[in-house]
Write a structure and sequence with these properties.
By secondary structure, the protein is an alpha/beta fold. 45% of the residues lie in helices and 13% in strands. The strands form four sheets. A four-stranded parallel sheet has the order 1-2-3-8, sandwiched between helices. Strands 4-7 form a two-stranded parallel ribbon.
Length: 292
């Protein structure tokens, strides 16, 4: 989902890019990674690969660690050998989620689950190996037209459910992949030019809300009655992995980079919405046409 928008952003700039899916490159394989860099000679790598099954990571932490921890380390080591800039996408789950104010980039980490632990391992590898040319960009609550996500799910459910119960005790920052892709590209350009130092940035929208508030805004944009969305608690949706109650990230790390933090989540959602509706309803039409 994110990679599609990164590629679109690069294409808009006329910047050549080589998209490598898992079938094309196993980032946990050092020899394969070195061979890929030797063949394509990139100046910047954007690592959108990741084990994102939060609940599955609880049962298969070793497998999640290979993708989220070992993979970034392999990419960082190869990048150091070739002088390549590495942008690594991480997550709010590296924090405990129990704060009362936005987490700064240098706030103490404390993941509560396997997913967060494995992503933190990847962060640390990139920062240790590439202190000057490695960028860690933490994000959260991503949505976009290029894949399944919360917004598209709510668009689908609005059409078939009279009411929806949505948790109102988890707070975060809905973030459009198009906005994040723009910041990643600009960050890569700045790092390559030597105008932006390596480090940690938070790639989330400004402002914050709960899943309940997020869903009500989705209903409003659909022209549906937001009162059909009812608040509930996390206890009503028990999952194997703990969810952070507070995932709001600060954006001070963008200061001095010449790159502004991402705009307010409501403005982004409003702009993204027509494309999201088209993607979700187009999918439903295709499935209906094939009898699925």
């Amino acid at each position: 989902m994110l990679a599609q928008d990164v590629l679109a952003r690069l294409a808009a700039d006329g910047t050549a890019a080589v998209p490598l899916a898992h079938a094309d490159l196993d980032i946990t394989d050092p020899e394969a990674v070195r061979a890929a860099l030797a063949e394509h000679r990139p100046t910047v790598i954007v690592n959108c690969a990741g084990w994102t099954d939060v609940d599955g990571a609880e049962e298969r932490e070793d497998a999640a660690l290979a993708v989220n921890g070992t993979g970034p380390r392999v990419l960082a080591e190869a990048s150091k050998e070739t002088g390549t800039v590495l942008l690594h996408v991480s997550t709010d789950y590296v924090f405990a989620g129990d704060a009362a104010a936005p987490y700064a980039e240098d706030a103490p980490t404390g993941p509560r689950g396997a997913y967060g632990r494995t992503k933190l391992a990847g962060e640390q590898a990139v920062r240790d190996i590439l202190p000057e040319t490695g960028q860690v960009v933490r994000t959260a609550w991503l949505y976009g037209a290029g894949g399944p996500n919360f917004v598209r799910t709510m668009i689908r459910l609005e059409a078939v459910k009279d009411t929806l119960d949505v948790v109102d005790d988890q707070r975060g920052q809905p973030t459009w992949t198009v906005d994040l892709a723009d910041r990643l590209v600009r960050l890569g350009q700045g790092t390559l030019a030597g105008t932006v130092a390596g480090g940690v940035r938070h790639g989330t929208s400004s402002g914050d809300t709960t899943w309940f508030g997020f869903t009500r805004e989705i209903f409003r944009l659909l022209g549906a009655d937001p009162e059909r969305v009812r608040p509930t608690t996390s206890e009503a949706f028990v999952r194997p992995a703990p969810r952070p109650a507070y995932s709001v990230l600060g954006h001070e790390g963008w200061q001095g980079t010449g790159i502004e933090p991402i705009r307010d989540w409501r403005a982004a959602l409003a702009e993204a919405f027509p494309e999201l509706v088209e993607a979700e309803r187009g999918k439903a039409d295709r499935m209906g046409a094939t009898g699925q």
